[in-house]
Amino acid sequence: MRLNQKMVVYIITSLLVLIMSWEAQRSMSVTAANMVTIPEDAIRLRILANSDSPKDQWLKREIRDQVNAEITNWVTELESIDNARDVIESQLDKIEAIVEYELARIGVTDSFTVEFNEVQFPTKLYGNVVYPAGMYEAVLITIGEGKGENWWCVLFPPLCFIDFANGDAVADSDQEQEETEVRFFVVEIFNSIKSLFS
């Protein structure tokens, strides 16, 4: 390989490293800017599965979807935690009815409880934010023995678009598009380098 070719390869490689480093920093900045933190005045939802068996975990998710959709309808337009608390307390029988219906629909005979109280939460790391363990105001649904993996989110203000149990968030379509464009750009540069030597 001639000296000129080595210089071209070195310059292009350096350029690629700089671009990728810049994109990584930019992506981290976007993530930090969009990080959702839980306000001090918040009401959570926590669901404890009977066990970690696939069936019990699936049942937990079925109940989660129905309960979360119903409560979100109640609190979306509310602006104060006192109002949200009053609404949730007055509708606990409806939450119980949803859980009972889902259990019957699936053919499970597990017992269950629905509470609205101060509930113990474990520490959870989500992105760069640590949500400390502690007692938090929450609706707690316990299915059967309640020994399975739990799921939780924030009911008020409505933050259940984030699954705080496993750190999954709704994908940002703009961010996905930008990442795709960067990938195409990098591929084009590599193709250009290949064409220099072919």
Task: Set down the secondary structure blueprint.
Layout: H1 3-33, E1 43-48, H2 54-75, H3 81-90, H4 92-106, E2 112-121, E3 124-126, E4 129-131, E5 134-143, E6 150-156, H5 173-196
Parallel strand pairs: 1-5
Antiparallel strand pairs: 1-6, 2-5, 3-4
Helix pairs in contact: 1-5, 2-4
Major pleated sheet: 4 strands, mixed
Helical element count?
A: 5
Query: How many separate domains?
Result: 2
> Could you say which structural class the secondary elements and strand pairing correspond to?
alpha+beta
Rg over alpha carbons: 24 Å
**Ranges with pLDDT <50 over ≥5 residues?**
27-34, 167-180
Number of strands: 6
Beginning-to-end CA distance, first to last residue: 13 Å
Mean pLDDT: 77
Strands across the major sheet, in which order?
Answer: 2-5-1-6
Q: Helical content, roughly?
A: 40-55%
In terms of DSSP E residues, the strand content is 15-25%
**Strand-and-helix sequence, N→C?**
HEHHHEEEEEH
**Quick one: overall form?**
elongated
Q: Can you give a write-up of this model?
A:
It is a single chain. With 198 residues, this protein is of the alpha+beta class. It has 2 domains: 57 residues; 114 residues, no CATH class. 52% of the residues lie in helices and 20% in strands. The chain is built from 5 helices and 6 strands. A hairpin with a 2-residue loop joins strand 3 and strand 4. The longest helix has 31 residues. It comes from Anaerobacillus isosaccharinicus. Pfam families: Spore_II_R. This is Stage II sporulation protein R.
